[in-house]
Design goal:
Shape: globular
Number of domains: 1
Bound molecules: zinc ion
Strand content: 35-45%
């Protein structure tokens, strides 16, 4: 029983429109679903990814209008990395600079060159020139497909200590330890397909403790193939004394949640049913989708969510 890599990363934005403009307009991801937070239907839940929002490419945001900035620090996902083809970093430096985003100097980490920058909420992002990134870039976006983001390269967990998080990754979740560079410990999903397989644990006991808010990551989800595997995971994690949520129906996947030993919220999510379960592939992200239990409240929901212009054209929500 191994996880096959990262399924999605969920973060917080204070401004849905700026978020859409950045991730679609600057980074060239596809908005694959516009829905609301099922636990708080007055706020959007935005999903970005490749052309279909395949697991390993999905970055999602809870849009909490006006939310104060969070503090990036342990225990948290401190950086989220995207994979691009080997020779694409010069293109990205120029593109980001043109769009008013100033990347830091290119650095090499474990033999791979990368650029670091932040999104409009201050979320820390990286673009990594990966050896042979597989995956399916969104070809109809503003970024030429030969340079486009393929999906996640991985994440960096910031932790006060690392040993028990490392044990969970290697002894329970099937990751392989790939060594360390000072206080950065690298792990790779054992059965991963390359994309979205890297988890770095940054041991940062002196860093100011993180706090949830705009620009911070809420949780990271790992992939499991199907519902029976997920139930097996749940049973195993409970046996290992983790408190694990019941299976939650997130409509596009099924989820269980638990806190890893350092305190970061982990999720294990199923690959199916995926984002084409309620709209055809060519129409993904073009309208506000609601799960059946919220559809009766559509008129009220559309009155309270802020209006947003979508990349495909059209406006959702009404001016107040
Ligand atoms: Zn999630």
């Amino acid at each position: 029983m191994n996880v096959t890599g990262i399924h999605h990363v969920t973060a917080i934005t204070a401004d849905a429109q700026k978020n859409i403009d950045f991730y679609c307009g600057v980074l060239g991801l596809r908005l694959v679903k516009l829905t609301v937070n099922f636990d708080d239907p007055s706020s959007y839940h935005l999903y970005y990814g490749d052309e279909l929002g395949r697991p390993g490419t999905i970055l999602t945001f809870f849009a909490w209008p006006g939310a104060p900035r969070g503090i990036i620090g342990p225990p948290q996902v401190a950086a989220t990395s995207f994979a691009v083809p080997q020779n694409a970093l010069d293109f990205w430096r120029e593109r980001l600079t043109q769009k008013g985003v100033t990347p830091g100097p290119a650095v090499t980490r474990f033999g791979e060159a990368l650029l670091s920058f932040t999104d409009p909420d201050g979320m820390r992002l990286e673009i990594v020139a990966a050896d042979k990134p597989d995956g399916h870039a969104w070809a109809a976006g503003p970024v030429p497909v030969e340079h486009a983001i393929r999906g996640f390269h991985g994440i960096t967990l910031s932790e006060e200590g690392y040993e028990n998080t490392a044990s969970l990754l290697t002894e329970v979740m099937g990751f392989k330890a790939e060594g360390n560079d000072n206080n950065r410990f690298r792990f790779r999903a054992g059965a991963g397909e390359g994309l979205a397989s890297v988890v770095d644990v940054l041991c940062a006991p002196d860093a100011p403790r993180g706090g949830l808010g705009a620009g911070t990551v809420h949780h990271v989800a790992y992939r499991t193939s199907d519902d029976p595997q997920q139930l097996a995971w749940r049973k195993e994690l409970v046996r290992l004394k983790f408190n694990v949520s019941p299976v939650m129906d997130r409509f596009y996947f099924h989820s269980i949640y638990f806190r890893e030993p350092g305190g970061v919220l982990f999720e294990i999510a199923t690959d199916n049913p995926g984002f084409t379960t309620d709209e055809p592939a060519e129409e993904l992200g073009t309208t506000l989708k609601l799960p059946p239990q919220l559809e009766p409240y559509r008129a009220q929901i559309e009155r309270v969510v802020p209006p947003v212009r979508l990349p495909a054209g059209g406006v959702v929500g009404r001016a107040h």
